[in-house]
Amino acid sequence: MKFKQKCLHIVGGKKSGKTALVEWLIGGLKKKGYRVGALKHSMHNHPIDREGSDSYRMQKAGAQPTVFWTKEGVGIFFGKPDEFQIEEVLQFVYKDIDILIIESFSAAEGPKIVIDDGSGGREQFKNVIAVVSEHQPERGLPVFGKYDPQLIRFIEDYFNLKS
Questions:
Q1: Cα-flanking dihedrals φ and ψ of residue 118, to 5°?
Q2: What mean pLDDT do residues 104-112 have?
Q3: 154 falls in which pLDDT band (50, 70, 90)?
Q4: What b/e string do you get for 79-117 counting C-beta neighbours within 10 Å, with b at 16 or more?
Q5: What is the pLDDT of residue 136?
Q6: 54 has a pLDDT exceeding 70
Q7: Closest listed residue to residue 111, CA positions, set 16, 26, 6
Q8: Are strands 128-133 and 66-70 parallel, antiparallel or unpaired?
Q9: How does the average pLDDT of the chain come out, rounded?
Q10: How many CB atoms sit inside 10 A of residue 16's CB?
Q11: Neighbouring C-alpha atoms within 13 Å toward the C-beta of 107
């Protein structure tokens, strides 16, 4: 899947702290005035909607997409769209952002920051631009501590972001 937006993938092992880092990056970039989008990818089966809810029943009846809209927000549910549909929807949803932070979509194209929790396995990721680690230094790539403010600066420079 290719994105037209500037995308940064945060990847690493299970329970390595990806979500916490993504939250911190979003907050840090927002404080600097950037419009940040987020996407969480999972290879596991997770329910997208609550079984038995009205929107779930509408989906099961064949509606695609199904939208759930409240004062709290909007949810758009697709069954199993093809990749072209997904790309079209995501291009529209993220059209007004400065950067998209993607958690756990390691197979997708695009630059990646790997969280190295010391368990190894960094070699499985392609397009790695930096490493977040509290362990031994990485050779040949920039290494940052988990909540190092220089990581925000690195992302700004890498993507040529202007606040």
A1: 90, -5
A2: 83
A3: very high
A4: eeeeeeeeeeebeeebeebbbbbbbbbbebebbbbbbbb
A5: 67
A6: yes
A7: 6
A8: unpaired
A9: 85
A10: 21
A11: 4
Give residue for tokens 């890498």. 158
Asked whether 84 and 100 are in contact (CB, 8 A), the reply is no
Quote the pLDDT of residue 30: 97
Query: Could you tell me if 22 and 39 are in contact, meaning their C-beta atoms sit under 8 angstroms apart?
Result: no
H or E element that contains 151: helix 149-159
Structural domains in the chain plus CATH codes: 7-44+80-159 (3.40.50.300)
Q: Which residue has the higher pLDDT, 50 or 100?
A: 100
Buried b (16+ CB within 10 A) or exposed e, 125-161: beebbbbbbeeeebeeeebbeeeeeebbebbbeeeeb
DSSP assignment of 85-130, as one string?
A: HHHHHHHHHTTT-SEEEEES-TTSSS-EEEEE-SS--GGG-SSEEE
